[in-house]
Amino acid sequence: MHRRHFLVAVLCLSLGGLHADLVVLSSGRTLEGRLIEATDQELRLETFAGPFRIPKARVVRHDPKGGGDFAKYEAAAQAGEKDPSAQLALAKTCLGHRVFARAREHLVRAAALGVEEAKTAALSQEVDKAEAAWRKGLPQPVGVLLKVGTVQVLDEKERTWLIDRVEAASALLFRITNGGLYIQEVVVDVGSPKGHLVYDRAFTGTPEGSGSIPMGPVNWDPAVVVHEMGHALWGLPDDDSAGSGGKWGVSKYPCVMAHQWDQGFGPCCRQRLSAAFRKERLSEFFDRLEEECEGFVPDTQVTWKGAPAPKQARP
Question: Fewer Cβ atoms within 10 A, N terminus or C terminus of the chain?
Answer without folding.
Answer: C
